[in-house]
Design brief:
The protein has one helix and six strands, in the order αββββββ. The chain is an alpha+beta fold. The strands form two sheets. Strands 1-2-5 form a three-stranded antiparallel β-sheet, with no helix packed on it. The radius of gyration is 31 Å and the shape is elongated.
């Protein structure tokens, strides 16, 4: 009987300690989120060109403040003054230059820039 009484007293004491410790916990305030602008890394276009059996495959990054809706790109080859291709306004961010060689250089910019 003594053991049961001591066990019960210990359980009550431990429970009271846990309740007291929990009530002293302060919760951090909800973080404030910026709704007007996003934090972004300053990344470039990230153009990659790979020589394939079908020519040179080009792929580039769509930047965080751009949308594929109504966004076309001009592709320049070997520092040419005139683009070799302009993507569709809602097209993909890739192109294959069928006449491309491994020594060619490319540049991709937003249409009209």
């Amino acid at each position: 009987m003594k053991k049961k009484l001591i066990s019960a007293a210990l359980c009550v004491a431990m429970s009271m300690t846990a309740v007291t410790a929990y009530s002293g916990i302060t919760h951090a305030a909800e973080p404030e989120y910026q709704t007007t602008a996003r934090r972004m890394e300053r990344l470039g276009r990230g153009l990659a060109a790979v020589k394939t059996s079908g020519g040179v495959y080009l792929s580039w990054r769509l930047l965080g403040d751009e949308s594929l809706n109504d966004q076309a790109f001009d592709i320049y080859k070997n520092d040419g003054a005139k683009p070799i291709y302009t993507t569709l306004a809602d097209g993909a961010t890739c192109y294959t230059d069928s006449s491309g060689k491994a020594t060619d250089t490319y540049k991709v910019v937003k249409e009209g820039e």
